[in-house]
Amino acid sequence: MKGKIVFALAALFFATPFSAWAEHPGQAQLVAEVAKDTGKDPAALNALLDGAKRQQSILDAISRPAEAKPWSEYRQIFLTPARIDAGVRFYLDHQALLEQIGKKYGVEPQYIVAIIGVETFYGRLTGKYKVLDALVTLGLYYPPRAAFFRNELKTLLELPDTQLAGPVDTLTGSYAGAQGWGQFMPSSIRDFAVDEDGDGRIDLQNSLPDIFGSVANYFVKHGWVSGGPVAARAQPDAAARVLTPKDASPQWTIEQLEAWGYAPLQHLDPGASSSLQTLQGANGPEYWFTFKNFQVITTYNRSVMYAMSVNQLAQAIIEVVHALENAPR
């Protein structure tokens, strides 16, 4: 009799649909929300999520971000001769399209290139994690930032097919679930990505017009000032006031910062609104006036070091491009 009971229980176990006994924590609630908001089939949503896997390597990766390094080390990741040279070639290879989109949106093309250069080495390293795995892992198994990543997972499931480069379960990207050459999270795809080539689909993996246009549109929607300054070096005197801004929001005029002991190393509008950022360089602290466009870059990644890397890469690329254009022939 006991053997028959065990056999019956085993048969019931294997006959039970996988999702009923191995679904991810919070899956049922998530599916219910997406189905309610979009009208999508709950069975299809469950099938997608059942196929996603919790990845320990993703949890490991998010625990050791590059932003934990000091500026002197962080800068060396992105401001390498190889990345600058590749950026120059990328700019020149796509110059007409970049300058067309830059003019349309009012965003200097070198900053579009620099974002792509920092994020994916100009499209070479877009990430090998399944986006669905990444967002399930971080949204449902990573309590420190579960609210943010669960919202991104929900957004991914709600995006229409025309806003994705392919079926949801085939998309690949970073360990954080960012996709394409510009590494857009699902909410950024929803809010800022554009169908620049007009083919009826937003493809941030294969369409250069969509990729460039989406980065430019992201900047514009976050307040990019066309032709505006990004960052400039400051030299403190011995009695300079210690400033610890909480973020990159411009909050003081250059004139005020000069009065507090920070002298600009180039001509700047005394009335310009700025912030002051301190970075730990190889030879000691570096002091920088930063402006609205610098803050816009930090909306892409909150790290001040990230924004400075993008700015310096953009400057390095455009200096070489201009030198080549102005060289004797």
UniProtKB/TrEMBL annotation:
Residues 1-22 form the signal peptide. Residues 28-315 form the Transglycosylase SLT domain. It comes from the Bacteria. InterPro entries: Lysozyme-like_dom_sf, Lytic_transglycosylase_MltB, MltB-like, SLT_2. Keywords: Signal. NCBIfam families: MltB. This is Murein transglycosylase. It comes from Dyella nitratireducens.
